[in-house]
Amino acid sequence: MEKLPPITDKRVLVGHNTADDAGVIRINDELALVLTVDIFTPIVDDPYTYGQISAANSLSDVYAMGGTPYSALNIVGFPKDLFPIEVLADILRGGADKAMEANTVILGGHTISDDEMKYGLAVTGLIHPDRIITNANARPGDVLILTKPIGTGTITTALKAGKGTKPMIKNVSELMMRLNKTAAEACQRVGINACTDITGFGLLGHALEVARESGVGLIFNYNDIPIIPDAIETTKKGFVPGGTKANHLYAAPDVEYADRLGINEQYLLCDPQTSGGLLISVPEDCAEQLRNELTDAGDSAFIIGYVTNENKGKIRVL
Ligand code: CO
Ligand code: CO
Ligand code: CO
Q1: Of the bound ligands, which one is closest to the alpha carbon of residue 196?
Q2: Closest ligand to residue 75's CA
């Protein structure tokens, strides 16, 4: 994106110059659009589940900005020689059902013939221009809350290698299908300083964006970070996605790990997530209220650390 000319249009409220979740463009003083797109290849065998996961993942960036998804378009790459057309119908049905849960209308879409299956949504959301939540406003003293456990990358890598059990597949699928909708609504009610969703760059990669864009340091307590138990096992067995190693390398200069944290623990913190939770930076005096609102809505809420004015743009994992 650095090779593209900078955005100078005054209507743009969030563009590609900041490493944020979605673009935001103003319509008028009361209304702005939140725009995002995401597609990926199947990570579970069941097409209906895959459709739901991919849709939840695509919708997530709108929630991370504090927006409300409004409409969407399907984007499909379909290998018609490898799968019967019913498979595509099941994927699209999964996406449609998830979109309906998000009160979002899928208006149509576009399919190309492809060597590999791909599916996702281009999502349009709405937001009041004064209520945009970015990753650039975390403040020293804030409490950091994560709304889903991490570890979906290593688990789905094990699944692809045929090493999954039924309960393992069910558990990780439910986690990835869960919308960040109620979590985002709780954030808007309570009032938070910054937010991002945890996806391909892993917890540390996305947290580093918060640290850099906000000009603050982040402190995490490893023992407070929720990790799916199966993920600890699959990582020990060597199911480490290529993305984890890339994320680990990328984060290395700006992350200081406690000595007791070995390479597997470090890898888990860099594990790329599909449809991960929100990482929320909330003022300390609102943290308890937010945690209650999140758990009342059926979401998880793990306090995993806090924000400091030391070590700007960096992370320490205790
Ligand atoms: Co995002
Ligand atoms: Co995204
Ligand atoms: Co077309």
Answers
A1: 1
A2: 3
**Spatial distance between the Cα atoms of 125 and 71, rounded to a whole number of angstroms:** 7
Prediction pTM value:
0.95
Tell how far the Cα of 228 is from the centroid of ligand 2, in angstroms: 22
Q: Quick one: average pLDDT of 140-165?
A: 96
- 62-105 pLDDT tens trace: 999 999 999 999 999 999 999 999 999 999 999 999 999 999 99
Task: Find the ligand nearest to 19 CA.
Answer: 1
The CATH fold of domain 12-131:
60s Ribosomal Protein L30; Chain: A; (3.30.1330)
What separation in Å is there between the alpha carbon of 199 and the centre of ligand 2? 7
- Residue ranges per structural domain of the chain: 12-131, 143-317
Quote the CATH superfamily of domain 143-317.
PurM-like C-terminal domain (3.90.650.10)
Q: Quick: pLDDT tens for 240-295.
A: 999 999 999 999 999 999 999 999 999 999 999 999 999 999 999 999 999 999 99
Q: What confidence tier does 5 reach under pLDDT thresholds 50, 70, 90?
A: confident
